[in-house]
Amino acid sequence: MHEQQIAIIGLGTTGLSCVNFYRHKGICVTVFDTRAVPPGADQLDDSTELITGPLSAELLSQFKTLVVSPGIAVATPAIAAAINSGVEVIGDIELFARELQLAKYQNAKLVTITGSNGKSTVTSLLGEMALNANVNVAVGGNIGVPALDLLQEGTTLYILELSSFQLETTESLSATISTILNVSEDHLDRYTSYQAYTAAKHKIYEQSQSILINRDDPLTFSTKKPQFSFGFDEQEYGIIKQSAVFYLSFNQQPLLACSELKLSGKHNWMNALAALALGQQVDLPMPAMLNTLRSYTGLKHRCEFVKEVSGVRWINDSKATNVGATEAALLGLSDTIQGKVHVILGGDGKGADFSELSSVLAEIKGEIVCFGQDGHLIAKYHQNAILVDNLEQAVKHIAKYGVEGDLAILTPACASLDMYKNFMARGDHFVQLVDSLTGNI
Length: 441
What we know:
Blueprint: E1 6-9, H1 12-24, E2 30-33, E3 49-52, H2 57-60, E4 65-68, H3 77-84, E5 88-90, H4 92-100, E6 109-114, H5 119-132, E7 137-141, H6 147-150, E8 157-161, H7 164-168, E9 177-180, H8 194-202, E10 211-214, E11 227-230, E12 237-242, E13 245-250, E14 253-257, H9 266-281, H10 286-295, E15 304-309, E16 312-316, H11 323-330, E17 341-346, H12 358-362, E18 368-371, H13 375-379, E19 386-387, H14 391-401, E20 407-410, H15 423-435
Helix pairs in contact: 5-9, 5-10, 9-10
């Protein structure tokens, strides 16, 4: 047995939160990282041994517990060998779960959220709802602050976004309510099959007192009770239409006109419903939640509301760096507004098949403007698409044709590296361009 019984596998933000967690308990740990100079190494004190380079099965097998960062698969040969020799392998979320069971945290409620898409939006939106209700809330996990850094006496509500990677090494969560928002193919480089990926997501239900499912996605269904649901129909948390107006609803009673949301698109209607459902189960007051929905502009660069200029709503979805993300943003978008949708696409397509955009582009009645390295490849899939040299020209073109009631969205379906440092820089430039519009659209 190694002199120290606990090893942290992988440093970075999560690994460092684990080191600090044990340090506060007076427990020394050893850190392993395959990188020569892992991020966070300069924040380790002299009591923490750092071993870099390839992982050694022989060395890892000498520990009692390995705390593995979510980016490292437990199927990694050295870790798998340690498991076979009887070593416990857990993650930071499992440490959080065990700590939350202590008496000093017994009054805290926990919401856990996973899904292939939308989980960051729902997590942050629910956090804003809690803040607006003056609840002492802590939000993090796979988004923002590592879970262990959130632990504090007096916090009455924890909201965690969890990835399938984090759920792999977690067994002891006892959430007040959990949800799988949706499941689509992802991370198949990590999992042996789509079924294995889905099964990892479903571990969240096994560790929850009640669950929220998506009625429109059978892969989120479960036999676990009690359960609640959200979806596009009029059941439970759903959508109703009255006098040609769509409303978020509960048991067919209108809660808020969808047109009052700053968030755009039907997928964000679903995110709003999920947040309302989760919030109601942890006793957040409905007025505070609805007021949050009226003002919440979304996560930066993810269908983020920028501003309204002369009645045209401008949306920054620069994080849509692949075809699937753009499809999600545009699908049914025209049905959610009074006027036309105008779209800006293009950049480095990374060899993507843009023909998959044909159906959603067919819905677009406004301007379709393409730019960047692969803009011409996207433009082939709509007869009215035009090509411009850069983002500034694209914004100016749409500003010329947009009228009150319209919506303009940057949702590139491409990476940004042909013209920008990253998608954030592209989105920031878009926001600057929109902010500079004078309103004479």
